[in-house]
């Protein structure tokens, strides 16, 4: 009896503490946005506070010229996403870098999972996020090579019913305006923009003195019409997996880019939170797709 009494009182106390904790945490906005840092109980509060909105920042492991780290895209997308969720709360999924990067398999340090695994892992990841209450999942893309993968993944959500919505925010690498660029021409990968961004996110990992030791020039080795696509195009033009000139990068440009990137992520989180239509229309579509002969104009 005594034990039961103690246990009951203990539970009551624990309940009061949880309630107090919940109130003060919510009042102070002190919940960590990072999935892996939350306790199970705080995760529940995080889902409430975020209105079921979660971010999946998507990076990659690949060479970034002679001067930037392999994880540049992962590091930068997480930096921008963390700044964004500090302004507009959403739960941030842990490090994710299982994307499309076949074109860099000839370079050291590239991790290129099979296409089947990329799609399966991403689907199971968003399914698991949704099962835990993330009904609005914003994939924040930090890697150019995912521009092939993510629209397909987004479209593939129409195949089977899901009780959640996937939004894809493509990478925002540069915006009009801001500091005048010092390099001219193409700046796709590890060039002035991306180097400048990394000087903001992880200045200690930028080896600017090595940036001119390889060429990031377009080698123009293909001669095809613009509307004809072939997978080797990237390697044909940029065989060093470097595009642009990182050696002239300055922090001011990175600050401008990052500020705009963060603003785009904040805008996407707010739009997802406010979006009541997508899931309703998805459900209408899934229902109709079970019996297409009944669909009338
Ligand atoms: Zn990159």
Layout of helices and strands, plus pairs?
Elements: H1 2-28, H2 40-49, E1 53-58, H3 72-87, E2 91-92, H4 115-131, E3 136-141, H5 146-156, E4 165-169, H6 192-201, H7 233-237, H8 251-274, H9 277-288
Helix pairs in contact: 3-6, 3-8, 6-8
What do you see in this structure?
With 297 residues, the chain is an alpha/beta fold. The chain has 9 helices and 4 strands. It has helices at residues 2-28, 40-49, 72-87, 115-131, 146-156, 192-201, 233-237, 251-274, 277-288; strands at residues 53-58, 91-92, 136-141, 165-169. It has a 4-stranded parallel beta sheet with strand order 2-1-3-4, with helices on both faces. Helix 3 links the parallel strand 1 and strand 2 (91-92). 35% of the residues are buried.
Summarize this structure as a short list of keywords or feature phrases.
297 residues, alpha/beta, 4-stranded parallel beta sheet, 9 helices, 4 strands, 44% helix, globular, disordered N terminus, binds zinc ion
């Amino acid at each position: 009896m005594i034990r039961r009494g103690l246990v009951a009182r203990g539970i009551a106390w624990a309940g009061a503490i949880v309630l107090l904790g919940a109130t003060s945490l919510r009042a102070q906005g002190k919940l960590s946005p990072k999935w892996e840092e939350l306790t199970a109980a705080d995760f529940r509060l995080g889902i409430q506070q975020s209105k079921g909105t979660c971010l999946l920042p998507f990076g990659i492991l690949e060479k970034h010229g002679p001067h930037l780290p392999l994880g540049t895209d992962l590091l930068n997308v997480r930096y921008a996403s963390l700044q964004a969720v500090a302004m507009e709360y959403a739960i941030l999924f842990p490090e994710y870098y299982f994307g499309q990067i076949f074109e860099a398999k000839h370079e050291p340090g590239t991790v290129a999972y099979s296409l089947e695994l990329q799609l399966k892992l991403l689907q199971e990841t968003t399914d698991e996020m949704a099962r835990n209450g993330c009904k609005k999942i914003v994939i924040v893309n930090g890697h150019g090579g995912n521009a092939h993968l993510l629209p397909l993944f987004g479209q593939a959500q129409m195949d089977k019913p899901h009780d959640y919505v996937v939004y894809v925010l493509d990478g925002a690498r540069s915006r009009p305006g801001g500091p005048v660029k010092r390099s001219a021409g193409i700046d796709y990968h590890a060039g002035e923009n991306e180097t400048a961004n990394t000087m903001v996110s992880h200045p200690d990992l930028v080896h600017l003195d090595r940036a001119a030791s390889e060429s990031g020039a377009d080698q123009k080795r293909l001669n095809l019409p613009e509307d004809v696509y072939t997978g080797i195009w990237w390697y044909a033009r940029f065989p060093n997996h470097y595009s642009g000139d990182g050696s002239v990068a300055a922090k001011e440009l990175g600050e401008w880019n990052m500020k705009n990137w963060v603003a785009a992520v904040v805008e996407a989180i707010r739009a997802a939170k406010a979006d009541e239509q997508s899931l309703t229309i998805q459900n209408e579509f899934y229902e109709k797709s079970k019996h297409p002969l009944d669909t009338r104009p």
